[in-house]
Amino acid sequence: MDASVEQLLVQLHLGSLDASEVFSYPGRNDNWSGVTDTGNAVFVKRLKGNPKESLKRYQRLMSFERLMDRGQSPFPRPEFLGGDEEQRLLVFGMLDDIRSGSELAAEEEFTEATSAEAGRTVAALHRLPFLPEDFPEPDPHPYPPVEDLRSLPLEHYVNATGAFIQGWGLLQRDTALLDGLERLRATEADVAHVPIHGDLRLDQFLATDSALYVNDWEEFRLGDPARDVGAYVGEWLHRAVLRIPSQEADDAFSATLTHEEVVARGSEELTRVLPLIAAFHRGYREGGGPDDDGLVVRATSYAGWHLIDRLIASTKENGRLSAIVRAAAGIGRTALLDPRSFVSTVGLGEAA
User: Fold this and answer.
1) Of 235, 232, 259, 233, which is closest to residue 245 (Cα–Cα)?
2) What pLDDT digit, counting tens, does each position of 283-299 carry?
3) What does the DSSP assignment read for 102-136?
4) Coil, strand or helix at 254
5) Measured in whole angstroms, how far is the alpha carbon of residue 233 from the centre of its chain?
6) Where are the membrane-spanning stretches (predicted)?
7) How far apart are CA 129 and CA 133, in angstroms?
8) Alpha carbons 60 and 219: distance in angstroms, whole number
9) CA dist., res. 191 & res. 302, Å (int)
10) Among 57-61, 111-115, 144-148, whose mean pLDDT is lowest?
11) DSSP 310-335
12) Do 142 and 223 touch, CB atoms closer than 8 A?
């Protein structure tokens, strides 16, 4: 923890962490948490990345906080205590006894009631009133990165793992998939844009005994509400597929499943998560989320993209592209290219 963190805490009259027990958690950003010498429990985050990109992420988060502070906050989020744009530092009140949505899901404690509450929360986000000056510049979402899929930038290639090159090559050669992604991007331009989270994953939900919080607003912007709905659906589909044991074996004594067993296990896992997706969609509609005729179809496409995006994410730190991740991406491709046929399959009811 460097001096700039201490300086910001003092400027915000929050005390010092210098003599405190400080904890840090893994993630793409540096972070520190603890109780200051004046008794304030704080979580401090420094946004990493190139200066231009980290500045945009800082500004998006500040836009979100300003929008939420304009009126009564329609859903819980960690209390924002202050920041330093130049240092890319953000200070939040630290929540007590929290568990992330990912932890709840891993322990099979993410209930239908929790999922419905998540749906109502996302609906409240999508209904946030805003003014044109709240979003003064166009800020299109970078994903799916259609142009990069057609021509990978040199800097990405030079720094890529073998698995990344393998996975990217599979996507680049898939003309039908690239055309489908371009259609999805074009469709987004034609729908009404609302405030969206932009990077909704289960680990962005933080649960306490009394509330469900949403965290990490660095990709906040105007966009298609189907993005957030599809990302949530995609999270559960991805988890369902990854629970099917891979045909790959780490050693000669590892058990493998037959094709029939894989299919049966896949059906079992899908049956397990569909009630959670349905509960989310029910909560979303109850919360008054935008639900135009095409939303569930677009959300199914975005759920498909989420599975493909998870393949890309998995390759950035691994030297090998696993069979189960490829299988998940294949399911995502099917949903993305023919979403209308899979709306009910992924738990979003029937397409209009």
Assistant:
1) 259
2) 999 999 998 879 999 99
3) HHHHHTT---HHHHHHHHHHHHHHHT----GGGS-
4) coil
5) 11
6) none
7) 12
8) 6
9) 14
10) 144-148
11) HHHHHHTS-SS--HHHHHHHHHHHHH
12) no
CB 88 within 8 A of CB 58: yes
What's the pTM? 0.92
**What is the rounded distance in angstroms from the CA atom of residue 291 to the CA atom of residue 295?**
6
- Phi, then psi, of 263 in degrees rounded to 5: -60, -45
Conformation bin of residue 174: beta by default, left when phi > 0, alpha when psi is -120 to 50: beta
- Using the 8-state DSSP alphabet, how is residue 272 labeled? H
Nearest to 199 by CA among 215, 219, 184: 219
Distances (CA, A) of 345 to 157, 178, 258, 270, 342: 36, 23, 24, 9, 5
Picking from 112, 96, 93, the residue whose alpha carbon sits closest to that of residue 104 is 112
Question: Roughly what angle, to the nearest 10 degrees, separates helices 323-337 and 225-242?
Answer: 140
Q: Which residue has the higher pLDDT, 313 or 230?
A: 230
- Residues, the chain: 352
